[in-house]
Amino acid sequence: MSKIKNVYLFYSIIILISFTFAVRASNNAFMTTLPLFVKEYFNFSQVDIGILAGFSSLITFLTSLLINSKINSSARRRLFIFANLLISISFLLIIFSTTASIWFYVLFISFAAGIIMPNMLTSAGDYKDRKTRERMLGIYTLALSASLIVGPTIEALALEHFPLKYAFLVFVPISLMALILSPFMKFPESKTEESKDIKVLSNPGFKVAVYSILTYNAPFSMIVFFSGIFAEQTLKLPYDTIMLLFSLLFAVSFISRVLLSYIVPSRLWRYIKFSMLMTILGLSIIFISRNAAVYAIGIIFLGVPHGLTYPLSISSIGRSFDINKRNKANSYFFAVIMLINIGVPALAGGLIQAIGFRNVMVLIVPVIIVLFFLARSQVKKINFNRLHQIK
Q: Which residues contact 106 (CB under 8 A, 6 or more apart)?
């Protein structure tokens, strides 16, 4: 029986790694290439790009909160497969978009993300045993990081030979791989989720996860949408070098997650504090950067919290909710992230246009300090034994 269980676990790991890699590589290519694409081909301003990014986050937020968190497992599985099909079609056709139609492609891909991302997380954490669950979540986050290294590298190589808009076509085969694998992803059986929404939102472990992820999510959304333009306009870097800088960021993130998976921390809070500190240092270095070398150092520092923050946050949720309540908690967690992303890019676009990218980065530091104290106040409320030493 144990042998059969191990074979099934191995099968689940292979499917999870392959699917996660394909989905995240495609999604990241969309997020990092879209700002450059609409700027070059449609002459979008920084504010326009911020509004487009906010629109994308709004659609993902509404999809995750109002659709994915409400429907049963069977319906979610069908919608999950359809969402992967929608991404493949959008990547194939987006190169023919216009100033008007680009909004529809953003709508389609953002809707798909609101279905795929929380279900991918729930699938990775669908194990009762804490060690097995957190090791699977560790494998899941490693696959995320690996895709973020390989994806920009592939795109950088493609951009050496093809115009920018054809970068989307490079990821059509990768998105098709996700579509083929989507029916084989592990889905939990539907169970009655007795908790009301307020019990998710008021859970201290959930709040720690949210405050933690927001300390990096806000600056990272700006880095994804605006750092490429900053590097191209201010530092005069070519597109292929910009993509390699993204690869550098994600390489450091990957190494951080490998180390975190090896350690498997029992006390999450000390690692969350370290992650917040590294975010502050990275943003400060970008603020003082006046050349590509110093800017790259700032990117390296930010790669550490990018690697640590997400797995620490989802571990906090995994330790805080029973298995039949995690889909709702994960959907709300993902929706909260998207809610912040609705306002941040639009606001950032205006601020960057007014005071510059570097200055906006350093303005985030006080926000991170506030979030640190909010998270610490929730850690003090956590039931020590129930949450397996989040403290």
A: 34, 52, 55, 56, 59
Rg (CA), the chain: 20
H helices present in the chain, as ranges = 2-42, 46-62, 73-93, 102-124, 130-159, 167-170, 172-181, 197-201, 204-222, 228-233, 239-263, 269-288, 292-318, 326-355, 357-379
Residue 91: name the closest of 172, 173, 181, 177 by CA: 172
In 3D space, the residue among 274, 296, 330 whose CA is nearest the CA of residue 133 turns out to be 330
pLDDT digits (tens, 9 = 90+) for 354-384: 888 888 888 888 989 999 999 998 887 775 4
Convert the pLDDT of each residue in 275-309 to its tens digit: 999 999 998 998 888 888 888 898 899 999 988 99
Please name the residues in contact with 302: beta carbons below 8 A apart, sequence gap of 6 or more.
216, 219, 220, 223, 249, 278, 279, 282, 283, 286
Q: What angle do CA 350, 354, 358 make, to 5 degrees?
A: 95
Contact 104, 89 (CB under 8 A): no
DSSP letter (8 states) at residue 235: S
Taking the chain, what is the end-to-end CA distance rounded to the nearest angstrom? 36
For the chain, percent of residues with pLDDT exceeding 70? 92
Q: At what angle do helices 130-159 and 102-124 cross, to 10 degrees?
A: 150
Asked whether 109 and 90 are in contact (CB, 8 A), the reply is: yes
Answer yes or no: are the C-beta atoms of 255 and 300 closer than 8 Å: no
Q: At what angle do helices 269-288 and 357-379 cross, to 10 degrees?
A: 170
Q: Which residues contact 336 (CB under 8 A, 6 or more apart)?
A: 210
State how far the Cα of 332 lies from the Cα of 217, in Å rounded to an integer: 15
Name residues whose C-beta falls within 8 Å of residue 8's C-beta, 6 or more positions apart in sequence. none
